[in-house]
Amino acid sequence: MTTLPTDGRALFSTARNDGTLAITLEPQVIAPLGDDEILVRIEATPINPSDLGLLFGPADVASARKDGSATNATMLLDIAPHLRRMVASRVGQAMPVGNEGAGTVVAAGASASAQALIGRVVATFGGAMYGTYRTVRAAEALVLPEGSSAREGASLTVNPLTAMAMVGTMRREGYSALVHTAAASNLGQMLVRYCLSEGVALVNIVRSQAQVDILKALGATHIVDSSQPDFFERLVEALVETGATLAFDAIGGGKLVGQILTAMEAAQMRKGAAFSVYGTNVHKQVYIYGALDLGPTEFNRSFGLQWGIAGFLLTPYLMKVGLEEMVAMRAKVIAHRGDIFASSYTAEIGLDDMVDPALAQAYQAKATGSKYLLNPSK
Question: Residue 212: is its pLDDT beyond 70?
Answer without folding.
Answer: yes
